[in-house]
Each structure stands twice: as C-alpha cells, then as structure tokens.
Amino acid sequence: MFTGLVEDLGKISEVSPLPRGSGQRITITASLLAEPLPLGASLAVDGVCLTVVSSDRGWAALEVGPETRARTTLATLSIGRVVHLERALRVSDRLGGHIVTGHVDGIGQLEASQRRGDSWDLYVVTPPSLLRYIVEKGAICIDGVSLTVNQVDGRGFSVSLVPHTQAHTHLAGTVKGSLVNLEVDIVAKHVEKLIAAYVPASSTGISFDKLKEFGFARGD
C-alpha cells in the first residue's frame, strides 16, 4: 500500500531479461536506497508495486513479470531513465495523498502540457474503461503521483502540478505523446462492484430509490 507521495527520483542502471524471456530484471540507483531494502520488500516504481529481489547500499534490483509489462509502461524502461520511487506505507504513517495499491489499471497518453502561472497543467487521454472512475476534484495516480483531478471530459482529464510537485517529480518534463501509468480510485471500483450485485442486468441504471431500497441511502 502506498500514498502517491513520491519519496525520491531513481535512475535505471540495468535492464536484463529473466531466464525464460517473459519478464525483466531492473536495477535502480537512488539516494533513497542508501540503506538496503529487505528482500521481498515492496517498492513503487512509477506507480507500479514491485518486489525487491536484491539490494545493497544505493541500489535495488526488482523483477517485472509479463502481466506488469503488458499493463504498464515498465516494458519500455531503458538505462538512464528517471523513475518515481515510494516505499510501502507503514500503518503508523499519515495518509498524505490517497490510497494507492501500486496495481496499475491502465495506460494514458499525455496530450497537453503547459504552464499556467506557477502551476503546470497536464491533460491525459484515458481509456473509456477507466474514465468512469475519474471524477472532478477526485484523486488519480499518474506514474505513482497522487493528484487532484481538475476537469473530466469524454476523452480524458486534466490535473495541475504545484511547484513542489514540479521540482520533485518528472511529470512537468514529460513530453506530449508520452505514455503514463494510471491507477484510479480503488474505493470507486469496490463501490461499483458492490452495488452491481443488487442491480439486475436488465436495469437501466442506479436511481436514488434503488439505493434506498437496498440500504445505501436515506432521506427523500
């Protein structure tokens, strides 16, 4: 479990295929890794939860399986690429961003990136299957960064980067056309599945009366 608050920027120092060729092993260097991570620890790399298979002072090695390669941008990693890093959340930590699992839902494409005053605005074209979970002023995770959604339309959504986020992530430098990892709000997905169990397949949708009938709402 993570919060979407990037702790450090790491650099890919090695990429090699796994023995059977369906996955890859990556090595990352970063100041965050000055103390070796425990074997089996979780580390979010550009928003993707990976397992540490080896670590020493200043670096960590992780393995990327075929499912992760198919669903995220990690399949395109190359030596020298800068990535966001966040260690797993401890139970005693403050949840400064939002609940992030590190299980990327899909890939979006950056269509626009521009400065607006002190902020930096991004517009991300999003798969329709994910867009229904994204709401104005809700939370979205882009490459492991917890952000507030500014606006949503039929093709995608926009967010703004404050100066701190610009300085401590690589998002402001992401060029138009780049692919980014997206993780939508896990709570929204669970709510949808729970409610779906009470709505017949032939139903035209959810109404306030239907929510009251099954105990999800009160009042007139």
Automatic annotation (TrEMBL):
Keywords: Repeat, Riboflavin biosynthesis, Transferase. Transmembrane segments: none annotated. CDD domains: Riboflavin_synthase_like. InterPro entries: ATP_synth_asu-like_sf, Lumazine-bd, Lumazine-bd_dom, Riboflavin_synthase-like_b-brl. Its EC number is 2.5.1.9. It catalyses: 2 6,7-dimethyl-8-(1-D-ribityl)lumazine + H(+) = 5-amino-6-(D-ribitylamino)uracil + riboflavin. Pfam families: Lum_binding. It is an enzyme of class 2 (transferase). Lumazine-binding repeats lie at residues 1-98, 99-195. Catalyzes the dismutation of two molecules of 6,7-dimethyl-8-ribityllumazine, resulting in the formation of riboflavin and 5-amino-6-(D-ribitylamino)uracil. This is Riboflavin synthase. The lineage of its organism: Bacteria, environmental samples.
